[in-house]
Amino acid sequence: MTAATRSDTPGAANRETRHGPLITTLFGLYARGEANWLSVASLVRIMSDLGVEAPAVRSSVSRMKRRGILESVRHGSTAGYSLADSTLGTLAEGDVRIFERARATVEDGWLLVVFSVPETEREKRHELRTSLTRLGFGTAAPGAWIAPGNLGTETRRTLESRRLTGYVDIFRADHLAFGDLRSKVSTWWDLDELAEMYADFLRRHSPLADPSSWARATPREAFRAYVPMLTEWRRLPYRDPGIPLALLPDDWKGSTAGALFDELDDILSERAREHALTVIHGAAR
Description:
Elements: H1 3-6, H2 10-31, E1 38-39, H3 40-48, H4 54-66, E2 70-75, E3 78-83, H5 85-99, E4 110-115, H6 122-135, E5 138-141, E6 144-148, H7 152-161, E7 168-173, H8 181-188, H9 191-205, H10 219-233, H11 236-239, H12 254-284
Antiparallel strand pairs: 1-3, 2-3, 4-6, 4-7, 5-6
């Protein structure tokens, strides 16, 4: 069976879907500091350190180019890829959410977003829903999207950058009555699913949080642990928009998982970067 045939199978498509987030993580971590460019050779080599073979890398990159995430860019005679401008903007927004997480308080109140999109612009409706979901909004009622009040600036900036402001109204709100607010939060967001995602992150990555175990580890070993860990983590702050702890279950795992991520980032990130840049610069020669 040829590589082209394999890429058309459902299993291959699933593998490409898994590899794409790894590639996005690599570009976010290491390409932006290298003039937003990685050569084909360096990307293939660095992905091999994560156990991904060259044909799968090229297939995933092709899919990402079709989706407008990456662009083909040559530096002289060397082929490579850059992040599209829209992707750079999304990653810059994500840096704050991922590395500088802010937990709201009840006193921050809420944001309410409602929108109206003409039937002839269905794609805008989809884009709005996608943007609000990515920001972590829940649904308080049909057509009423809700998020913690401290996300006002980020929400405005995101909708402005996507040119969606003409369809949207944003309100600040307080819950005055009726019913128990803590119970309502559990209907506005799928807290059970989110709790399981946090628990899974803790199960998978807690064994890494022993600095002594990394005392003799190589930069390559740190890289192999760090990039998949960060790739898994970076979707979680979008699913949890920083709901006030007072409104979450008493045994909420989000804070514990966040502390684990910060610890692993501190232990692994610099040595992982050392390995990545060695590979990138070595492949460029």
